[in-house]
Write a structure and sequence with these properties.
Belongs to the 4-toluene sulfonate uptake permease (TSUP) (TC 2.A.102) family. This protein is an all-alpha fold. About 80% of the residues lie in helices and about 0% in strands. The chain is built from six helices and no strands.
Length: about 180
């Protein structure tokens, strides 16, 4: 059995501080930085990590929005876009909560990790810093998607093996 080393709480607190700062200043960062940090920490189930990140992301977004509104004012904010984002969030939140409850933690961790890696790779490849496009970008995406598919397949197989082991390990009732 492989023992996973847990991150100390101070490390998680530092990552949370950085993630919150990135989210408030750049509009993104809490989910992509906070989710892998909590998943890698191994202290919580993936469904609880996602719920915690979503809840805290709401609070970070409210604080950042209030900061921008108080310092910059509300001119230039399109109410239609705000309403669209609110309606999208209201529709997605219950659906995500329902899905997180149904999907096994191991599979959920692989699925979420893959989404985060692919979206972050896309952001990095399109950044001015790298500016990768064409065949090289396609090759990077193909490799990432293949690794993601492999991780998902491995997670699903491991979950099914665990379920089968649980069923065979349960004591059978003795009939008299």
């Amino acid at each position: 059995m492989i023992r996973r080393r847990r991150f100390p709480a101070t490390c998680s607190a530092g990552q949370a501080l950085v993630a919150g700062f990135l989210d408030a200043t750049g509009g993104g960062g809490w989910g992509p930085v906070g989710t892998p940090a909590l998943l890698a920490g191994g202290r919580m189930e993936p469904r609880k990590v996602i719920g915690s990140i979503d809840t805290s992301e709401f609070l970070v977004a409210v604080a950042a929005s209030l900061g921008f509104l108080l310092s910059l004012g509300s001119q230039g904010i399109d109410s239609l876009w705000v309403a669209a984002f609110l309606l999208g969030g209201l529709a997605a939140a219950p659906l995500a909560a329902w899905l997180v409850r149904l999907v096994p933690p191991r599979v959920l961790g692989s699925a979420v990790g893959g989404v985060i890696r692919v979206t972050n790779a896309r952001t990095l490849l399109r950044s001015d810093w790298l500016a990768v496009s064409g065949t090289l970008a396609t090759a990077v995406y193909v490799v990432l998607y293949a690794l993601w598919a492999g991780a998902l397949a491995y997670s699903v197989r491991a979950h099914l093996r665990e379920k089968a082991a649980e069923v065979t390990a349960e004591p059978q009732p003795v009939r008299v």
